[in-house]
C-alpha cells in the first residue's frame, strides 16, 4: 500500500542511529606482501578508527581492539597513520599512530603472546610542549631499522608555533624516551612536507614541500635529494612545481624516473619527470583531474604497476579508476558499479586496491587485477538493512549562475516506495554547501542523505565555484571571492530548483559544515531565499580566525587566497564575515558545535549567539563535549540529525514521525 502523506512527514526505515552507524568508510588502504590492510571507522566505539587486515583468501580481521585509535592530528586533519611490511618469518610488522597520545607504535600482530611481544610498543616519546609531537605518512624500512615519516613538532604553546620535517625513527624503540634519537632528514626550512618516497635503488628520495601563505592546491615543490650510505639526505633540489603550480603527489617508477601530478596545464595531469634535469613529459594530457586537493598528507591518486602501467584515479567531476599506458596515453577504466574513488590507492604486484562507491553503494575496499581487468569488492560490506527502493535516484546537474557561469550540483530527490505526496505539492529541499571550501561533494550513497530523502525532503549538494574536480580555473573562481561566489552559486541552485518546479520555493533550507557552515550563515544573511538553515562547526569571523590562536597553522594563511592578504584588504575581513552581518539574519537556524574543535573554535559560535541576542530570531545551539572538527560518535550524530530534521519539520509545517521536537528559542 502506498499512502498519501505530505513531503517531510513520510515514515522511513532509515533512523538517525542507522545513518550514524554507517558514517565514514574504509580509508588509507595499503598492503603487506599478499595481505590487504586499511583503516576502518568504528562510530559506535567513541568514534575511534582501527586497522583491518585481509589475508589472501581469508576474511576481514580487526587488528587493533579498543582503545587503540589509528589516527593522528598532523595539520589537524590528520595524515596517513600506518605502514606495514611483510617479513619472511613472524608475520608482518606494522607501525601506526595512536590518537590519544599521538605517539608512533610498532606492532607484530602474529607474534605469540607473552613477554609483551603481542602488544604495540612505542617508538616515539611522550609529547610535552604545546601540541606536542605528531607523526604521519610513514614509510617502513626494516632493512634500515627505521621508519621514515613526517614529524610535526610544536615549539611553543600557540597553534602556529610549529615546525615540520622528514625524520627517521629507529625501530628498536630507542627514541621512545629520547627525542634526540630521532634523526632529522630535512632542515625544517619548508613549513609543510609530505612523506618521503625512496627510489627503487634506495639512492634518492623525493617528497612534496610548500610554505605559507600557499595552500597545497595553490603551489608546491617536488623535491629530490641523494640518500647517503648512512641514510642522510643531501643536495635537496626542486625539480617540479612552484608558487603557481600544484604538485600533490609523486611516486618513483621502476626505471628510476619520477611520476608526478601537476596542474601546470590547468588540470592535474600526470607527468614523467627526470630526477636529474627536472625535464617533464605529459603522460596523458586531458581536461580531467588525475589528482586533487592535498588536505591530508599520504593521499594517493595514482600508483605505478609492474611493466610501466599506472593505476590512476581520474575524471571531470566524478573520479573513476583506470589503468594508464604511458606509452600510448590510453586509459582502460575499471568495469563495475563504482562511480567514485576516494584518494587512497595501493599496489601489490599486479593488483591495485582502492576505496570506491556509487549512488547505490557506500564506500568499500575494491581490488583490481590489472592483468585481467577484473575488479571486485574485498572488504566486508555494511549489512544491507535498507530496501534500496528507499535510495534516491540522483541527478547530476549544471545550473546557470551569475553571468551565465556553470554551477555543478548533485540532486537527490525525495523517494520512498511507501509514500507519495498530495497531488500538486512540491517537495522541500535542503541546499548543502560542502566544506573545504577547496573540495567537492561526490555522487555516492550516504545514509545521512537517505535519512532526509526517504522522509520526503530533497537534498541538493552544490559544487560551487572553488570546488575541485573541474580544473584550476573553476577553483580560481573563489580566489578573493569567498562569501560571494559560493553564496551566489548556492542561491543559483535554489532558484533553479524553484523555477523548474522541482522544489517548493517557500520551503528551501541551506546547510553546511566548516567552510560550508560559513556559506550557510553568509547565505542566511545575504538572501531571503531560505526558510531556515543548519550550521555545523562554522567559520564565522575572519578577523578572529586569523588572529593569534584563532585557528590551526595549516589554514592560518588560507584567507590570503580566499579573501586577500590582511594588510591589503582589511576592510573585507569584517565586511564578509557573517558574524558582522548577524543583524541581517531573520530566519530560524540550528547551530551545532564541537567543544574540542581546533579548526573552527567554539568561541566563534558563541559570539554569533551573542550577536543574535535580543533579535527574536528562533534558533537552537547544541554543543558536544569531546567532539572536534567533524562529528564521529554515534550519539553525537544521532542528536544532530534528529535536531536538524525537527528544525525542517517545524519550519516546513509538517510532523516528522518519531523525532523529538527541537526547542527553538527566540531571544
UniProtKB/TrEMBL annotation:
Supply the source organism for this entry. Answer: Streptosporangium nondiastaticum
Which InterPro entries does the UniProt record give?
6-blade_b-propeller_TolB-like (IPR011042), AB_hydrolase_fold (IPR029058), Peptidase_S9_cat (IPR001375), Xaa-Pro_dipeptidyl-ppase/CocE (IPR050585)
Molecular function terms from GO:
serine-type peptidase activity
Extract the Gene3D superfamilies matched here: alpha/beta hydrolase, TolB, C-terminal domain
Q: Does the keyword Hydrolase apply?
A: yes
For this entry, list what GO says about its biological process.
proteolysis
Task: Give residue ranges for domain Peptidase S9 prolyl oligopeptidase catalytic.
Answer: 448-653
Keywords carried by this UniProt record: Hydrolase
What are the boundaries of the signal sequence?
none
Keyword Hydrolase in the entry? The reply is yes
Q: What is this protein called?
A: Acyl-peptide hydrolase
